[in-house]
Amino acid sequence: MAVKRRPLVAGNWKMHGLRSRSSALVADLAKELERLGATGGPVDVVVCPPYTALCDVGRELQRTRGIDLGAQNLHWEDKGAFTGEISGPMLVEVGCRYVIVGHSERRQFFGETDESVSRRLGAALRHGLQPILCVGETWEEREGGRTEEVLTTQLRGALAGADGGPAGLSVAYEPVWAIGTGRAAQGRDAQAAAVLIRTLLAEKFGPKEAAGVRILYGGSVKPDNIGEFATQFDVDGALVGGASLDPGAFAEIVRQVMG
Ligand code: PEP
């Protein structure tokens, strides 16, 4: 019997938004979702603001329904001398339920490796946070016919941190060349990547567990292209960057994912 997966749409606000703007943004998003009849629908909606806005946005979310709080990263240790880092217990304390792990900007600009990603993933799972694990190839890797190899290495590397099972795990296929460029992948590329990802998940956790893991597409998702991804069998939603800063656009993406 086919497993029914509840779709997920997550907004990555990156390093955008001072505290007051972040609160206003999520309040506007709640209104837009309501207006479109997408509040509390059969889809999980998550916003991942910068750390400084987590408390404010979390407070705002207590007044609304159907939006969860996520963070953009976490450290693998619970506490200690790790200047500039943030831990799982700290995120849980401010109400986070989700956390992005291994985003390509972390890999590209902050030296994240498959090993550090796997440790961060392990920490998220240990603290009951639902990780959104990002994998994806660069344009050069794609042109060199190495997409499959890159996704396999990244995913196997990261999953070394998930020996206890994939409870709550989502994987986002985010081709690096599609992030913030306005040049999204095609639906069939996302589906092919999702099939590979699910096969690798099955190799690690078995087919039954793998069938329950949500696989998202991310990379220049907008209201006018989300339909192409949302209709792919193995794609269960989206990780949205730029368009998540526009409440109307993000709500419209959620509405379309709801179907
Ligand atoms: C992202 O940062 O994860 C992302 C997908 O960004 P954008 O939607 O802006 O391409």
Describe this structure in words.
This protein has 259 residues and is of the alpha/beta class. The protein has a single domain, classed as TIM Barrel. Helix 2 links the parallel strand 2 (44-48) and strand 3 (68-71). Helix 1 packs across helix 11. The protein has an eight-stranded parallel beta barrel with strand order 1-2-3-4-5-6-7-8, surrounded by five helices. It has eleven helices and eight strands. It starts with 7 loop residues before the first strand and ends with a helix. The longest helix is centred in the C-terminal third of the chain and has 19 residues, at 187-205. Helices cover 42% and strands 14% of the residues. The chain binds phosphoenolpyruvate (PEP). Phosphoenolpyruvate binds at residues 12, 174, 179-180, 218-221, 239-243.
Structure summary:
The chain has 259 residues and is an alpha/beta fold. Helices cover 42% and strands 14% of the residues. α2 (54-61) links the parallel β2 and β3.
List keywords for this structure.
alpha/beta; eight-stranded parallel barrel; 11 helices; globular; binds phosphoenolpyruvate
Q: Within the CATH hierarchy, at the fold level, what is the topology?
A: TIM Barrel
CATH first level: Alpha Beta
Structural class label? alpha/beta
> What distance separates the N and C termini?
22 Å
- In DSSP terms, counting alpha (H) and pi (I) runs of 4 or more, how many helices? 11
The oligomeric state of the chains shown is single chain
Q: What would you call the shape?
A: globular
Strand content: 5-15%
The mean pLDDT is 96
What small-molecule ligands were found? phosphoenolpyruvate
Largest sheet, in brief, is:
8 strands, parallel, barrel
Secondary-structure element string = EHEHEHEHHEHHEHHEHEH
